Amino acid sequence: MIGTLLTRLALLSLTAAFLATVAPAHAADTAQEEANKKVVVDFYEKAINQKDFEAASKHFGNRYVQHNPMSGDGPEGLKAFLGVLKEKFPQSRSEIKHVFADGDYVILHVHAVREPGTRGSAIVDIFKLEGGKIVEHWDVIQPIPEKAANNNGMF
Amino acid sequence: MIGTLLTRLALLSLTAAFLATVAPAHAADTAQEEANKKVVVDFYEKAINQKDFEAASKHFGNRYVQHNPMSGDGPEGLKAFLGVLKEKFPQSRSEIKHVFADGDYVILHVHAVREPGTRGSAIVDIFKLEGGKIVEHWDVIQPIPEKAANNNGMF
User: Fold this and answer.
1) Distance between CA atoms of residues A134 and B29, nearest Å
2) Distance of CA A83 to the CA centre of its chain
3) Residues 6 or more apart from A2 whose CB is under 8 A from it?
4) Contact state of B30 with A29 under an 8 Å Cβ cutoff
5) How far apart are CA B74 and CA A145, in angstroms?
6) Residue A31 pLDDT more than 60?
7) pLDDT at B24 over 80
8) Chain B partners of A126 at a C-beta cutoff of 8 Å?
9) Kind and range of the H or E element at A50?
10) Confidence of residue B132 (pLDDT cuts 50, 70, 90)
11) CA B45 to CA A150: how far, in whole Å?
């Protein structure tokens, strides 16, 4: 009797665990991926739009490996870049069009406009995170052309 | 007795289901995301490297919305592009450096070289899939510069 009761309790507990596990298995993002997306979006807003290096840099892990060929390596490279942005393009704005996450990586599809009224550039930024902190960055940047061979826009 | 046996069988079956569910819940990709990655990698290889429109086009869904500003809309746009590639850059090769998936989207980070021995371009391609078929494409393309402000490369 007690054995049966214990089996039933174990069954109930397993059922609960099973149901709790089904949802994440079929959703696009794990909890870590969702958290990583929030970290990267906040980092991007603080860095690229607010141009606030101190606020952005709280998201760095134990390194910031930079693959953008125009930028110096490490947090100091971002600091210098934001200094230039602040001085030369204080009105520059980047709009995040789409955020993707896969494992330790977050990918942003961005429309960046350095001077209001210009077409700007399409950018994809890729960030690698470790323990919820940003440790590496790659990007690809393309100016939006005046004319296109289709009517769909770049986003 | 039979009730207890059934309970135990149900318990065993739930345990198996639970264990089978744990792995996908904590892995980066769902089964659909894994399948989507395979579809896009095969499409890319057939289209961009083998330049075989017929083989690639089996992966199209009911539309192919093109956001690359140099390419015409739809499957016909890709067909024309591959024709140009075949004629002008028959030795062109694209190496996929990283594949990401999030929900219906697959993202490729690619090193494309049109003529052997040249530096080539960094590209990020974004594909949207519906029911395992490719329906939309965006990309961002940047020529790899001769000199860089860091030693990390663009990949």
Assistant:
1) 21
2) 22
3) none
4) no
5) 20
6) yes
7) no
8) 98, 100, 109, 124
9) none
10) very high
11) 24
User: pLDDT tier at A4 (50, 70, 90 boundaries)?
Assistant: low
Question: Which of B120, B112, B139, B113 has its CA nearest to residue B128?
Answer: B139
The CA-based angle A26-A38-B98, given to 5 degrees, is 65
> A107 and chain B: CB distance < 8 Å anywhere?
yes
Please enumerate, as own/partner, the contacts of B37-41 that have beta carbons within 8 Å and a separation of 24 or more.
B37/B99, B37/B101, B37/B106, B39/B106, B39/B129, B39/B132, B39/B133, B39/B134, B40/B99, B40/B106, B40/B108, B40/B127, B40/B129, B40/B134, B41/B96, B41/B99, B41/B108
> How many angstroms separate the Cα of A135 from the Cα of each of A132, B17, B24, B30, B104?
9, 36, 25, 25, 26
Of A121, A129, A130, nearest to A48 by C-alpha is A121
Residue closest to A26 by CA, chosen among B22, B31, B19: B31
For chain B, say whether A124 makes contact (Cβ under 8 Å).
Answer: yes
Q: Which residue has the tokens 């209001």?
A: A116
What is the side-by-side order of every strand in the sheet holding A105-113? A60-66, A133-143, A121-130, A105-113, A93-102
